[in-house]
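Re: weekly structure request thread

Next one in the queue (317 aa):
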Amino acid sequence: MIIKTKYSFFLKVFTLFIIILFVSCGKKTATSLKAYEPPKPVESINAIRIEDYLLLSWKYPSIETKRLKHFILIIKSDDRDETIELSPFQTEFRDNKIKEGNTYSYTLKTVNQKGTESLKSTKIEAVICKMPDEIISLNYQISFDNLILYWEPPKKYDDCPQDLSYNIYKFDDINNPVPVILNNVPIRDNKFIIPLELGYFTLRPVIQTETLNIGRESNTIKISHDSLIPQTPKIITTFRNNNRIFILWQEAKESWVKGYRIYKKESVQDRFYLVAEVLTPIFTEEVKNNGSFFYQITAFGPKRESSPSETIRHDYY
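Done, posted below.
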């Protein structure tokens, strides 16, 4: 009776061990099978050509990245056939070996930790157009409260279909430029008008084919307070009333004009002297002695002053 009890106890323990072993093995087998499943492919690739290189970029779910061993990038063209392994954490690739006039095919595959490749691969073709030379003629004009940027259009090329346009960029710090594109749509003309802003400005030619081709940056121009020179005041009328002189002129159209300066010279003097600053376009003063009096008006901005108006003469004898 005692032997039977011991036998039953060991039989139960052995049975429980087998069950645990079976369940554990089942879980391990499921995990192992999942590790061999093909990884999720990259959904799409973006390609932008900037100056002398092509920038490929893509997105991949972070939760899937830990299953990857690497990406495989296959590059093919008339003069190239390369296969490159990329880090699973990489989301862009810069191709510095492109040549103008060529078309390149890029294929991106995912490979998991067990070496299994994705069932699908993602492809894109990039057409590298011949771009214009660097534009060095970017210039500007300030018209009242507007900034007019203009440049000489570059030579066009016939070796691939193209529709030449431009992007205008602005940045605030020349030592740490963070360019912001100003145009919402490509600029077709060789002139661009925006509300007056201070800062640094540059442009790049753009050709859109199957691939966006962005050319070299132009010369940079700086718009500062030193650039703001008001237009010369235009005299409307001047007259005398008894012993007072009145001068009226057109109000400045620039919102950044701070006021006006009146310069005066008597007949016995060899140059004009500043006699007043006013905020409105009118000046009057009392004449206390006889003689010939000459006046000039200027407008002034944050830093610069306009050229003087026509000279006004009043004679008192």
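DSSP finds two helices and 22 strands in the chain. The CA atoms of residues 265 and 272 lie 5 Å apart.
Next request, please.
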